[in-house]
Design goal:
Blueprint: H1 21-26, H2 35-52, H3 54-57, H4 62-82, H5 88-120, H6 122-132, H7 137-155, H8 157-172, H9 176-194, H10 202-210, H11 222-237, H12 258-277, H13 283-304, E1 307-308, E2 328-329, H14 339-344, H15 348-367, H16 369-380, H17 383-394, H18 399-409, H19 415-427, H20 437-445, H21 452-456, H22 459-476
Antiparallel strand pairs: 1-2
């Protein structure tokens, strides 16, 4: 079971908003028709192509985008100097670095919590519970989908996808076919669930903070979002066998403090949301505060850690409850719990990929590409066509800068159209595995199994859900147009 990538997106995605500020500086000047602008765009396209074929060439996705980021910003610096904008490039890149810094610390805290819960045996316990209940693979497919859809509205789609994909991977075992279908289902459900909540995705948060839509108005997207997930889920479920998962071959060991760590994780999410909603502070402050609480508890665990050994009765398929203190033992001093071992196990490839993408997109924004693209969409294609295309574009380019460009233009749209672009930007990323933070993170977690091309085989079904959700929005919310 691979559990390196980590979780937390409800609040995690909240950190990315400053990302598009870099494009604001570029709004006053366009450098796209220069040799530097064309070269920067070519560097980004080449790097992204290498990301797409990662599973073929076995080159980690972070490497090409990190190099491309350096090249693009060097070109930005040259272009700005030639245009007489000395110092503006430095200001622009600092916005991108600030965005990444917040997202990095947020995700690092989340990943540390997830890795700690894995080390304490929480996910093994969940897998054992699912297996012991006799659920079939098809039932587990639907359970993980339902949980992903509703949890993402609160915990955010990235966090939810990481959590539920660990369950899919654990339950699937060596059944790679089920893991692929289950991971796709989780990604689509998490993205769909995040689209009808201000806290479910960064793009919805940006729209809410801008004051375009009120908190309650987002819930008008509940049924369209549900349809967006249900249609591909139903189609994919037909290929999932009704077989039961492979039985556990060894007893599950739940270590001391496992459920306290879970409680601290929930508390950390609450702190992050409260910091943002009540005190108007970046959510990352709440996450790092929660990481500090985990570190303090880890200090206690280092001196009082013990392992709970299952009894003969508890090793049966019906339960794994372990509460006999006489069967606990102290680990050797060299094996005591070390919180920084969990920090080391963070998915660094994913974190560095985010660095590369954020800086690449920020650099392209500084040339003026995003502003020109937005003007072309709404100026020539019309509101509905443009908003539908926004979702498709967000499957290729990150939806955060795309949505920021739309909010920067502030086109004259009805509430129905603002809801439409919020919906499409939120769920459009499901069309490709690299189209959303949730998909990218799950690719890192199920490396070599859930891949770009494995997801691409089901894009047609996801596309049906995408089209149906738009139709449902026009039908249900026609009074808002």
């Amino acid at each position: 079971m691979r559990l390196r990538s980590a979780l937390l997106c409800g609040a995690a995605l909240l950190c990315a908003a400053p990302a598009a500020l870099a494009s604001e500086a570029a709004a006053s000047v366009s450098l796209i028709n220069t040799w530097a602008g064309y070269t920067a765009l070519a560097a980004f396209v080449l790097a992204y192509l290498l990301v797409i074929v990662e599973d073929v060439i076995h080159l980690r996705k972070s490497k090409p985008v990190m190099v491309a980021a350096g090249i693009i910003w060097a070109l930005v610096g040259i272009a700005y100097l030639q245009a007489g904008l000395k110092g503006d490039a430095e200001a622009a890149i600092k916005h991108s670095l600030l965005e990444f810094g917040e997202l990095f610390l947020f995700l690092l805290a989340a990943m540390t919590y997830i890795n700690t819960m894995e080390e304490r045996g929480v996910f093994d316990a969940l897998r054992s519970w699912l297996v012991s209940r006799g659920f079939s693979l098809r039932t587990i497919f639907w359970l993980t989908g339902v949980l992903s859809f509703f949890l993402s509205a609160v915990a955010d789609n990235l966090t939810t996808a990481l959590l539920m994909s660990t369950v899919v991977i654990a339950v699937g075992g060596t059944n790679s076919r089920f893991i692929v279908i289950g991971c796709i289902n989780v990604v689509v459900a998490a993205n769909a669930g995040g689209a009808f909540s201000p806290f479910g995705d960064l793009t919805t948060l940006m729209v809410w903070q801008k004051g375009v839509l009120s908190f309650v108005e987002f819930f008008d997207l509940f049924i369209p979002s549900l349809i967006n997930w249900l249609i591909p889920a139903f189609i994919m479920s037909l290929t999932v066998e009704k077989l039961k998962p492979e039985p556990l071959k060894e007893a599950v060991v739940i270590k001391m403090g496992a459920w306290i760590v879970v409680g601290l994780f929930i508390l950390t999410i609450c702190i992050a949301v409260a910091m943002h909603s009540l005190l108007h502070l970046p959510p990352v402050i709440g996450m790092t505060t929660g990481l500090g609480l985990l570190n303090l508890y880890a200090y206690y665990l280092a001196f009082h850690d013990h392992v709970e050994i299952p009894t003969a009765e508890s090793q049966g398929p019906d339960h794994i409850h372990l509460d006999n203190e006489e069967e606990q033992f102290e680990p050797p001093a060299g094996q005591r719990f070390d919180i920084y071992k969990q920090v080391e196990r963070a998915e660094w490839d994913t974190l560095m990929f985010f660095y590369g993408i954020i800086l690449c997109v920020g650099g392209l924004a500084s040339f003026g590409y995003l502003t020109v693209g937005s003007e072309w969409l709404y100026g020539g294609l019309g509101d509905t066509t443009a908003n539908v295309l926004i979702g498709i574009i967000s499957a290729i380019v990150d939806n955060v800068p795309v949505m920021f460009a739309v909010l920067t233009m502030m086109p004259e749209l009805s509430h129905g159209q603002w809801l439409l672009v919020t919906l499409t930007a939120g769920v459009g990323g499901s069309l490709l595995s690299v189209g959303s933070a949730a998909g990218v993170a799950v690719m890192g977690q199920a490396r070599g199994v859930y891949t770009f091309f494995a997801h691409l085989k089901w894009t047609w079904a996801i596309g049906l859900g995408y089209a149906a959700s738009i139709w449902a929005h026009f039908l249900i919310n026609k009074s808002l147009f």
